[in-house]
Amino acid sequence: MNKIITTLLLFVALHSFGQGVQVDTLKVSLSPRFVDLQYERMNYPIVRTGDKRIDFLINNDIKNKLTHNEFPEASIDSTIADWAAEGIVYLDFQVTYNKQGILSLNISTEGCGAYCSSWTEYFNYSTLTGKALDLGDVIDTKGSFRELVLKHKKAQYEQQRKELKKMLLDTESGLDSATYEWALEYYNGCETSSELSSFALHQKHLEIVESCYLPNAIKNLTPVLELKYKYSDINKHLKIKI
To answer: Which residue ranges form the domains of the chain, and what is each CATH number?
Structure first.
């Protein structure tokens, strides 16, 4: 009995002092179709909070979102194995924030079919309730902070257009006018259609993830945007303690 009480007290103490939960690694086998690629990274995260109900909520949500609900009722092990067998050649994760009852992590993936493409998805949870957190749960997205982000995003897209124009004018870049117009069309579309939804928490800053996916033929022209905000600078907008 004393051992059980001690364990429970230790778990409570960890949460009381803002310590993080455990994130284990599930090793995933590479499909036999791609063994020649010799990828070493096939790692999938398993969250352990000490509460089975919360663990189920978080892990099941990650599994279903990552696999687009292909196997909603199957176990994590079998789901990830079956999903990876369809052409996943790289799978790895990074925990960027894990304290104050909040977990923020991302999972990077590369899949191969007719061609290979890579992407990263972002996940944020309350480890006290198991609830997936939206950006609006973390920070006020309707006031001046939203205006600030949109201003920065607009300025960075404009800078990316200028860089694209420089490439067009550089005869050694290999960029022709048709490809330039094609990429520019995507830039404009991404800027006007994107929403403030994907985000990641880090130790000292909040990152708004702005992704603009271009066709594989012009993937090298993908615009790179960086929207990072120190907690100390946006403290008045935060809804939770970080």
So the answer is: 2-133 (3.30.565.40), 138-237 (no CATH)
